[in-house]
Amino acid sequence: MFKSAQIIVLAALLLLVSVAAHAQQRYLRVTNNTGFDIITLNVSSSSTGDWEEDVLGTRILRNGQTHQVNFSGKGSPVYDIKAVDEDGDTYYRMGVNVLTEDVTLTLGDLSH
């Protein structure tokens, strides 16, 4: 009886740790609905003054496609997004909470 109680307690602890670890995972899905291919995508913490590296690398985010950006760490979940399309036009979305939001870039995000 004692051993089965230990197994139940251990299983419950493992479940709690797993749920807590999953809750800490941060990611952002960025969908391109601009009508143009996105060639660079920068996602930076809103608390920094600089843009981080291009998260697409050598990929192109074609119109209609979605790209998932994964984050690590426990800092602020608020990020700024900058995308540049094939024509050199720049799109911005600022102050995105990656815990609660995904982003769909449209022509309305185009910088003038």
Automatic annotation (TrEMBL):
It comes from the Bacteria. Keywords: Signal. Residues 1-23 form the signal peptide. This is Argininosuccinate lyase. The lineage of its organism: Bacteria, Pseudomonadati, Pseudomonadota, Gammaproteobacteria, Lysobacterales.
